[in-house]
Amino acid sequence: MKILMFFHGGSTNRGCEAIVRSGVALIKNQYPTATVDLISWDPKSDKIIPLVDNIFLDRNQTIKKYTYSWLVSAFKLKLFKDESYSLQYIHKSIIDKISNYDILMSIGGDNYCYGEQPTIYELDKLIKKSGKKLVLWGASIGQEDLSPQKIEDLKTFDLILARESLTFEVLKNNGIQNVKLCADGAFTMEKEELPLPDNWQISNTIGFNFSPLVWKKNKDSRQAAFDLVRHILKTTNYTIAFTPHVIQADNDDYECLLDFYNEFKETNRVLILPNNLNAIQYKGYIARMKFFIGARTHATIAAYSCLVPTLVLGYSVKSKGIAKDIFGEEKLVLSLKDISDSKKLIEKFEEMKNQEQEIINTLANRIPEIKKMSKKAVYYLLEA
Asked: Which band of pLDDT confidence, cut at 50, 70 and 90, is reported for residue 177?
């Protein structure tokens, strides 16, 4: 069995790294002879991931004027108003490899959350026309994300693996039957525990992750986050470890969190983790935290999976669905709108603090079950 994972942006997003790292490990654990290749926008960043057989460069391609491809595209568009050729050409890096694989696995699980995707639809059509199996791995899709065209595209998949029940229910309710419920593979990802920084308080350090993505979507959220940090330092004796999880240009948690660190460093109760750690190393630090507050989904998955009580600065269906599957409700998940409200942030932090043992007990009961759901994804894949 040969699998190509595609729509991977690169591992400077440690959440994307976690998806590939855990996915490949799950597949090879159940099917050791499988070949799993990856096509990536940033292959150099992916060399840290074990078990991947080959890594290729994916880049969006444009048609140059007066070439053969340009003439074909112009002919189809002018005579038939058909732009499929030019749309497909964008993903030529992937298309050229379709014939080499049995399963084409889209790991851009939340690509369908960002409006219409005509180039993706055309790529999916080509994959199916080639007689290959098409799988969407770890999907997160809300009702507000769907359109008639998108629904039709999703119906062409041989298998959609929804990583939480809200997405599963939305897809089923819209007539998409080729969907199975599992959990994000990152729940099963291993951790690597590096030495603790000198100013880390054992059993008394909490993690704090904030992202430029959240800040851009809600400009007032940054000030509310500052107010929460100030409240924690004033009312507790905890050390706060600012924890980046995405370190991409124009989307860099470290740069964002450096502002927090510089604002509060004179308290001698804050530290910032380096920006060059991989996903399992960040998870190793998160596992030793008392609490975790995070905007990046896979940073919060790292916390949940290590039984760390977590407050989620959620902005999508995936955050809400994951919490619901663990707790039976969207517990300690604040919407994009709510995270600009300092009072609500502080109230939710106090709720987490007051219910610490109850939350730990729930995580201890539920995380083993969630991990079993993660592993189900491979069984569904092999049956597809």
From this structure: very high
Nearest to 247 by CA among 299, 197, 286: 299
pLDDT of residue 250: 84
CB 36 within 8 A of CB 43: no
Cα–Cα distance, 56 to 77 (Å, whole number) = 31
Contacts of 43 (CB under 8 A, 6+ apart): 10, 55, 56, 57
Helices (H), 34-82: 68-80
Q: What span, in angstroms and rounded, lies between the C-alpha atoms of 326 and 315?
A: 18
- CA nearest neighbour of 360 among 289, 273, 284: 289
Rg (CA), the chain: 22
Lowest mean pLDDT among 45-49, 186-190, 213-217, 353-357: 213-217
pLDDT in tens, 325-347: 999 999 999 988 899 999 999 99
Identify which of 184, 154, 161, 175 has the alpha carbon closest to the alpha carbon of residue 384.
Answer: 161
